[in-house]
Amino acid sequence: MNNNEKRTIDSKYIQQHLANERTYLAWIRTSITIIGVGFLITNLHFSSRSTASLVADILAQIIGFASIAVGIITLVMASISYFKKGKDINQQTFKFPRVTVILLSLVLLLIFLCFGAYYVFVWT
Q1: Among 71, 77, 92, which Cα is nearest to 13's?
Q2: How much helix, strand and coil, in percent to the nearest 5, is found in the chain?
Q3: Where does the sequence pass through the membrane (predicted)?
Q4: Do residues 20 and 89 lie in contact, with contact meaning Cβ atoms separated by under 8 Å?
Q5: Region for residue 16 given its phi and psi (left: phi exceeds 0; alpha: psi -120 to 50; beta: otherwise)
Q6: How confident is residue 1, by pLDDT bands cut at 50, 70 and 90?
Q7: Which of 1, 84, 85, 95 has the fewest C-beta atoms lying within 10 Å of its C-beta?
Q8: Interval 77-98: pLDDT, tens
C-alpha cells in the first residue's frame, strides 16, 4: 500500500480540521464557564444573604437557570457546528456562522442585564 492510498479527504485539509477542533474545545470551555458563573452567583446569593429580598431571590434563580440553559445550548450548538464545519471544510463550502454568534451574544446580553438588575437590587 503506497502513500496515496492511505490519504483521506480529511488529510488534505488537516490544518483546517485541527483549527476546527481547537475552536470546538474553546466553545466547550466557554459553556463550562457560563454554567459555572451561574452556579457561583446563585450559591453566593443564597449562602451570604444579609437581607432577604424576593426580587433578588428571583433574579439569582433566573441567572442560575439561564446560565445552565445557555451553557447547555452552547455545548449543543458547538457540537453541531463542529461536525458541520468538518463537512464544509472537506467540501470547500465553509460559511461564517453569523446566526450562531449573534444568537449566543444576545442571550448572554440578557443574562448580563439580569446581573445588572441583581446588582441594583442587592447591593444598593
Answers
A1: 92
A2: 85, 0, 15
A3: 24-46, 58-80, 101-121
A4: yes
A5: alpha
A6: very low
A7: 1
A8: 999 999 999 999 888 887 887 8
